[in-house]
Specification:
Helix content is about 15%, strand content about 35%. The protein has helices at about 45-70, 115-120, 255-265, 285-290, 310-315, 330-340; strands spanning about 30, 40, 70-80, 80-85, 100-105, 110-115, 125, 135-140, 145-150, 175-180, 185-200, 205-215, 225-230, 235-240, 250-255, 275, 275-285, 300-305, 320-325, 330, 350-355, 360-365, 365-370. It is of the alpha+beta class.
Length: about 375
């Protein structure tokens, strides 16, 4: 018995007689790929495969939702006796429910949400997955990252969701957003990570780094709700959308949220370094950049100095140009704020600045920002 071969034997040799393999019996709807003897799958089989893929996608989303939905809450806020929707500023005085969301991160009721959701709140109510209502108090808030930590006032053991590691995320990964857009509780949308490592301005003007961009629909009222990975971990806190744009939403990455959460639980706030200046970002001319040995033509110009501050103790004056601090280049005001993190507090470091066409070095010790 001869073997089935994929191509005719040439160069003067006769082709061996081909025999139909017994395990490739067709149904009448298939064809044979020319020269191979291989049966081509029929269109109905291809449709079945597509359905299986769709079912796998659906199962993933359903599993994520079933795991995390019980930990997603509706945050209802009162300000001065008026109900205020997070994205519904100007609502009537009769409205008592806001449109914010949050996610429970521990069984004793620690909740993470957006700072702008609870800003200036006089009363906060939490509505759980099964409709149960709790009062909540603010443990701490951080406008610089637009995050706030609440505590549900209940003795019940609550369902909670784990925080994931946002450094492992890649563009294209499946994500699920759960929240209360426009008052529709426990709404689910899906999408992908469109980009990682974005920067976004918080409402106080500070720059939030390591922001996730997603095309999962994030509508008014989703603020503070979780962005979830396909394995059911919270990898972001939904915080912003671009008006009049479709499919562009942003979430504060879970690693930023974890750092903020840890400091708020420890200190009641996020501690950051402070040297006591008001500054502005300066773009340096190329020649000056080269003379100072900088990698970027950016620095910080001192426009004001607070009395009895580290800047006064270091001998800084209005008009000085800050170039480096602690060996790191001061790449504008945002770069300076990034350098002055909690680790900088109380540690003396070298400050390099430019004054009257001369370069100076001095020591400065950041303090805890008021």
């Amino acid at each position: 018995m001869s073997r089935v071969i994929g191509f005719p034997q040439i160069f003067g040799k006769e082709q061996e007689e081909q025999e139909e393999p017994e395990d490739q019996v067709g149904t009448g709807n298939e064809g044979v790929r020319p020269g191979t003897g291989q049966i081509i799958a029929n269109p109905q089989q291809q449709v079945a495969n597509d359905d299986q893929l769709l079912d796998a996608y659906s199962r993933t989303v359903v599993d994520v939702v079933s795991k995390v939905s019980p930990a997603v809450v509706h945050v209802q806020v009162r300000q001065g006796g008026k109900g205020v929707g997070v994205a519904n500023k100007g609502a009537s005085s009769e409205q008592t429910e806001g449109g914010g969301s949050g996610v429970i991160l521990s069984p004793d009721g620690i909740i993470l949400t957006n700072q702008h959701v609870i800003d200036e709140a006089t009363d906060i109510k939490i509505r759980g997955f099964e409709g149960q209502d709790y009062s909540a108090r603010v443990i701490g808030q951080d406008p610089d990252t637009d995050l706030a930590v609440l505590h549900a006032q209940t003795d019940a053991t609550l369902a909670y969701a784990p925080l994931g590691d946002s450094t492992k995320l890649r563009a294209g990964q499946l994500v699920v957003a759960i929240g209360n857009p426009l008052g529709f509780e426990s709404s689910v949308t899906t999408g992908v990570i469109s980009a990682v490592g974005r920067s976004l301005r918080a409402r106080n003007g500070r720059l939030i780094d390591d922001v996730l961009q997603t095309d999962a629909a994030i509508n008014p009222g989703n603020s503070g709700g979780p962005l979830i990975s396909s394995c059911g971990e919270v990898i972001g806190i939904n915080t912003a959308i671009i008006a009049r744009a479709y499919g562009i939403g942003f979430s504060v990455a879970s690693n930023t949220a974890r750092s903020t959460l840890t400091q708020i639980l420890q200190h009641g706030r996020v501690r950051r370094g402070f040297i006591g200046i008001a500054g502005q970002t300066l773009i340096l001319p190329p020649q000056m950049m080269n003379e100072l040995g900088l990698g970027e033509p950016v620095a910080v110009g001192v426009i004001d100095i607070q009395p009895q501050s580290p800047a006064v103790n270091a001998g800084l004056k209005q008009g000085d140009i800050l170039v480096k601090i602690g060996g790191q280049e001061v790449s504008g005001v945002d770069g300076l704020l990034k350098i002055l993190d909690s680790d900088s507090i109380g540690h003396s470091c070298e400050l390099t600045f430019y004054r009257d066409n001369k370069l100076y070095r001095t020591q400065i010790t950041p303090v805890d920002r008021p």
